[in-house]
Design goal:
The structure is a single chain. With about 210 residues, this protein is of the alpha/beta class. The protein is about 35% helix and about 15% strand. It is globular and about 40 Å long. Helix 3 crosses helix 4. The protein is built from 6 helices and 7 strands.
Length: about 210
Amino acid sequence: MLFGLRLEGLENVPTRRPLIFVCNHGSNYDGMFAKTAVSRVLGSEVTAVAWGGIRGFPFAHHAIEAGAFSVILTEEHGETTDDRVGVLEKMIELLLRGQSLFLMGEGMPGRALGKFKDGAAYAALRAGASIVPMSLRGIQPLWTDLPWPNRWHGKVSIRFHPPVDPADYCGLPWREAVDAVTAEVRRRVASAIDYPDGLAASPRSA
């Protein structure tokens, strides 16, 4: 109600489950928006894959401790190979059990759309789960422009894009398949954001 959250492209969300929802990360509120939208669309709770540092946020800390929502936490300070493997194994295990996930493509928020991590693609290919790209709009001003308490209202919308089916990439070598899925998910997310794409090619000088 505070942010007038509007959902678009609901017809693009497949009925086949489980799914991985991946969105852009342009503010500190994106997890709240994404969880609300995905839970509403699925009609059930969804597991978040989130940066371990959210445990330092008062509300999130108490919610996690109380088991108010399901979350897989990544490492707070850097990430070793063992940490990454553990997170991916948990993601795949939940997907194989029929549980849908959502995560922020970049992992950390930024003023421009950044490079997407490849964990979602890896888990999707291993578990055979489709990825639904999501573009969050109206989020950047909440982080960069508005003073308190104005950051607690706005006009936020989320567009769901057609899913990326990992089966379409199974003929590629593994590394190429992971990279191709990640790139396609990012391309669809980038197609509907309302702030800069940090990886977009700069125009050539005359």
